[in-house]
Design a protein that fits this description.
This protein has 497 residues and is of the alpha/beta class. The protein has 15 helices and 20 strands. The chain binds ligand BES and zinc ion (2 copies).
Length: 497
């Protein structure tokens, strides 16, 4: 799909459909929409009077052969109240319009910037929304659905006087959208087609492609480093684990610059191990590598966006299988840090592999950490598929991250890390246990487990278990991998210094 800025007046843009936003207020016919209305002999105003157009968010009204426009169709999309409207809202609007028109066979679209959102933030958001919405996977279908593809989208009405900054915004949006779709492709892969080794190979290929440093630790190196928590999870599987390390270095690094560490859980399949999961929905556990894929998407984007500070990404990759050599409840493992862990439930494996990964990242010299993991079912109970659960210490570091989430238009909710949750992972025979004693607080005890290895390093932990995969499509998004958290982490990394 091509996306390009087009400085022609909206009336002369040739397209299968021109998309225009309609606000839910009385001045909706100011500017471009007013001109369109005039060209159509006040027809739009009449549709407002008759109640067919209200401007309510995401309302869609399609008009064929609109007079005064070179486009074949005019798609009006509701933008809601103007006072509440933000550039970020253009993501959903552009995405919803794309999916609606794609399903009707349109190939060549034009998207008209709404009044008041004609700048760089709006352009970037629109491009991101288009790429997110265009994503669909039918890789493993031998009979492809009749190809309904969008060939091109022209961005019309953006403020051309912004010059290069506007072009750059469109390019940034493309890099971010394509990187998210790279991650979504990985998350869609079934586990027999994406083992830890294969994930490492895909990461290596991507890194070489975009110019990132890359190193893959194999099972021997992992043993040498004494990553006992990761090895404990991996030993139940015939597939060996990998630790993927990616590095981004700025061209002119500042001396003593802080180093951002990104860690992502990549369990390529989570059966639960000996504490085996029920069969229902187990197939979904192919997406238990979503945190790792998220970080790979972020790193891919950063290679193009070139932030000021260095970034090191560590992805522990393994299967979690029951097998003759699998670890068992009651076993004690020694993590790379030297801490001893009593395994209570082998299905709480994510925190185990993250324990060694965050510790290793600190060894590599990161000064700040963000991890993303499909970690707990408990976060689904707390927040559903609406918000990502965001934990972190110190509070100012978490707050900074939440600002990035807001800027990126992603919903994240701060979750508690009181010491009482730490007390719940005390073990009777080892330093800590891998599940909380007592009932409840499962997302917080899991986070505390990771914190035991993070220590005082500023750290954000994102529990994306309930938001990485959506079971039902949305008007702006296909069902399946959502690409959640990628934009927020990119925004944070770009501002980080
Ligand atoms: N991968 C799961 C968490 C998960 C659940 C992700 C649902 C996506 C959807 C994780 O490894 C797990 O099994 N967690 C257990 C922990 C429990 C045994 C303490 C859980 O949340 O049930
Ligand atoms: Zn599990
Ligand atoms: Zn898991």
């Amino acid at each position: 799909m091509q996306i390009q800025l087009d400085s022609q007046p909206h009336a002369s843009v040739q397209a299968d459909a021109l998309v225009a936003c309609v606000f839910d207020d009385d001045n909706r016919f100011e500017g471009a929409l007013g001109e369109i209305n005039k060209g159509m002999g006040d027809r739009l105003a009449k549709l407002v009077q008759s109640g067919e157009i209200s401007g309510k968010a995401l309302e869609l009204v399609l008009i064929h052969f609109p007079e005064g426009l070179a486009a074949q169709r005019l798609l009006l999309i509701g933008a809601g109240k103007r006072e509440k409207f933000k550039a970020a809202d253009l993501r959903k609007l552009a995405g919803t319009a794309l999916r609606y028109l794609k399903s009707r066979g349109a190939k060549k679209l034009a998207f008209l910037a709404p009044e008041g959102e004609r700048g760089t933030a709006g352009a970037q958001a629109a491009v991101e929304g288009l790429l997110w919405a265009d994503y669909e996977s039918d890789k493993y279908r031998t009979e492809k659905k009749p190809a309904r593809l969008i060939d091109s989208v022209a961005l019309v009405g953006f403020d051309a006087s912004l010059g290069e900054a506007l072009t750059k915004a469109v390019e940034d949006g493309r890099v971010i959208g394509e990187s998210a779709n790279f991650a979504r492709d990985l998350i869609n892969e079934p586990s027999n087609r994406l083992t830890p080794k294969m994930l490492a190979a895909r990461a290596e290929a991507m890194a070489k492609d975009v110019g990132l440093g890359v190193e893959v630790l194999d099972e021997r190196k992992i043993a040498e480093l004494k990553m006992g928590a990761l090895i404990g999870v991996a030993q139940g599987s015939n597939e060996p684990p990998r630790v993927i390390v990616l590095r981004y270095k700025p061209e002119n690094p500042k001396p003593n610059a802080p180093v951002l560490g990104l860690v992502g859980k990549a369990v390529t399949f989570d059966t639960g191990g000996i504490s085996i999961k029920p069969a229902t929905n187990m197939e979904k556990m192919k997406y238990d590598m979503g945190g790792g894929a998220t970080m790979l998407g972020v790193m891919r984007a950063l290679a193009f966006l070139k932030p000021d500070s260095p970034v090191i990404c560590v992805i522990p990759a393994t299967e979690n299988m029951p097998g003759g050599r699998a670890q068992k409840p009651g076993d004690v493992q020694v993590a790379m840090s030297g801490k001893t862990i009593e395994i209570i439930n082998t299905d709480a494996e994510g925190r185990l592999i993250l324990a060694d990964a965050v510790f290793y990242a600190r060894k590599l010299g990161v000064t700040h950490l963000i991890d993303a993991a499909t970690l707990t079912g408990a976060i689904d109970v707390a927040l559903g598929n609406v918000n990502v659960g965001a934990f972190g210490t110190p509070r100012e570091y978490l707050d900074k991250f939440l600002e990035s989430a807001k800027a990126a238009g992603e919903k994240m909710w701060p979750m508690p890390l009181d010491e009482e949750y730490q007390a719940m992972i005390k073990s009777d025979i080892a330093d800590i246990r891998n599940t909380g004693s007592g009932k409840g607080g499962g997302a917080s005890t899991a986070a505390w487990f990771i914190k035991e290895f993070v220590d005082d390093t500023p750290w954000v932990h994102l529990d994306i278990a309930s938001t990485t995969w959506i079971d039902e499509g949305r008007p702006w998004l296909a069902k399946g991998p959502s690409g959640v958290a990628i934009r927020s982490i990119i925004d944070f990394a770009r501002k980080f210094s």
